[in-house]
Amino acid sequence: MELTVMGVSFTLLLLLGVPVAFAIGLSSVATILAAGLPIAVVFQKMVGGMQVFSFLAIPFFVFAGELMLYGGIADRIVRFANSLVGHVRGGLGMSNVIGCTIFGGVAGSPLADVSAIGSVMIPLMKKDGYDADYAVNVTTHAALVGAIMPTSHNLIIYTLATAGIASVSALSLMLAGLVPALILTVCNLAAAYWVAVRRGYPVRPGGFSGWSVVISAFLASLPGLLVVVIILGGILSGAFTATESASIAVAWALLVTVFVYRSMSWHNFLKACAKACKTTGVVLLLIGISAAFGYFMALYEVPQRTGDLMKAVSSEPWVIFLMINVLLFVLGTFLDMAATILICTPIFLPIAMQFGMDPVQFGIIMLINCALGLNTPPVGSVQFVGCAIGGITVGQVMRTIGPFYGALGVCLLLVTYVPSFSLWLPGLFK
Fold this sequence. Notes:
Elements: H1 2-15, H2 20-35, H3 40-50, H4 57-70, H5 73-85, H6 91-107, H7 110-127, H8 132-142, H9 153-161, H10 170-176, H11 178-199, H12 211-237, H13 242-260, H14 266-299, H15 302-313, H16 317-332, H17 337-354, H18 359-373, H19 381-390, H20 394-398, H21 402-417, H22 420-428
Helix pairs in contact: 1-2, 2-14, 3-14, 4-7, 4-9, 4-13, 4-14, 5-6, 5-12, 6-7, 6-8, 6-11, 6-12, 7-8, 7-19, 8-11, 8-19, 9-17, 10-22, 11-21, 12-13, 14-17, 15-17, 16-17, 16-18, 17-18, 18-21
């Protein structure tokens, strides 16, 4: 009875357009009323879910990403990417992918990535004769790499969502995302090049600019790029913890944007602060409410029942993993990334572990699936931003999204069925 109330109320609230955080909270309240338990249990679980030291990393990583967004780092990264690969066919598309990958590693946010790089590259590509749908698709898909880079606050959210199920360190997850990020970039480059060749996009006149130009552009962007090196190097050397690394990222972002590049205005600084506060508030609200929701899912054995249903279909691990991917993708299309991680991890992680998947590998698979959801309606926040910049409708973009979806699908399958892609690097530092 209580499980039915929880599932039906949550679904109905989402269909009615209620924000995800409130839908989770109200369905938790409805469940506890149906169970006849004190309503104070919901608030106890909410407060308990947010009283974790590791949560301090989230506002700092969010703030660092916003400082990178408003601090003019994107322009230097674009110049470096264009000098490196801008001479090949569809060169601006190639440059877009490289630029998004690099900035995603710096900012750790797909939304910040598409906002920063997209605002530069999409109008530039349209001006040079590229179709708007191509420019938007390249940008929005390349931006997704930010979800699995070391500066992503979603990595921290996943480590917290695994509490009581498995022991996953933030460092191992940061390292695990690097090789899949490279694979994702290669897949995006292949898709961008293939479409560019089919559509006959031009080659940049003059050819390769020369290594002196590449090195000069790289040195100009290097201070911004060093944030990833500092975070990973500091954690591995023991200079600071994964949680403390987030505050180091903020300090470095301020140092670079204010004193090195001198591109951070007071107005943009205030905008970065306001945006970071808003995002942090939303994420922490989701975390607290999801802690209560997760309590009821555990109480009424949702993971066990889901596992039984999946095993009734097949007992083959590869089939189970495929079903998990499909379900995560579907849920990610209408749930926010943080909400998907917090709700789905307690359900699917025990099932994946039962069939031999490492929790670190599952985390990367979870994040890639959630990233795909950011580019898929009806939520699709990354895609909506890209379409707004490109002056094109979502429907027009969706008609030509196939090659780019295919590239991300290849990456997801490789990470799912070849564990070494995500586990090799963390294994070196155990």
